[in-house]
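**Archive record**
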Amino acid sequence: MIIAQKPATGPFLLTIMGGAFTFAPITRPMLMRARRWASSGATSAGAASDDSAFLDDVGNAVSLALLTEGLIGWEHGAAALPVGDDEDVGDAEIVEVDGLRYRILPFSPENKALLLSDAVIFDAFDTAYVLPFVMRERAKNVPAGSSDGISSRVTPAKDTAAPRAAAKSGAKRARTGNTRSRTKKSS
């Protein structure tokens, strides 16, 4: 059975690593663009010597494409960049946390790319945004048990006959076939 689900209606907020980030729902066209982008990068780079490493690279490329397109904003102060004491920050907004200075990053394509280039942040965004979509898709694509009862999930196999009872000592076997008693012939 195919189960249709209503598509997400609009952007939503996710709290990731203490900041509120706005994401667009992942759609089929968005997924297709991400796959094309990842496959074009994979074919130009050539296949890796290790298939699992190659698949990881392609999976990360799909996630990066989905995150790049899906992340459409963040709340003020959700993203910041550490700055040194002697660094010139111009007119950028600076906050101090535990004696360290941070420059607030406004939402922009450059700052989005900067955030997603950090492996820890990428993994956190991937886990919060892409992984739930993948798990929903995987759950939808699991074949359902057969409604006619043939599937092993619908009707588990049962033994048709009871297992043979262990023979008790001294028990006689039942007669079969000829019921006449056999007598010995004397010669």
